[in-house]
Amino acid sequence: MSSEEKKEGIKHDQGKDDFTYVSLEMMTALARVRAFGAKKYSRDNWKTGFKVTRSLAAALRHIFARLSGQKYDSESGLDHLWHAACCLEHAIYDAANHSHNEINPNVGHTEDGR
Fold this sequence. Notes:
The protein is mainly alpha-helical. 45% of the residues lie in helices and 0% in strands.
């Protein structure tokens, strides 16, 4: 091995989630809507749980606002798509962590979403 070559260390990360698949745009959107929510309510208030249907209904309101030509939420000034993404995150989080909030609480989900 020449002095120019560098040996790579061993890292046993096969089969682990690769969060580099999530775009910077998505992470920025979630972070900015979360910061707005933290000021309006409190940090991580959303993690206390909501009925999944409430989060889905909120996501649809933001999606339909965007489809009707309104790009930005009038209260936050942030893109409706960003809010919709956060609402979907709420639903995913609640389905995984608050099974009593699930649409049908008798239906469980595995880690891979099935």
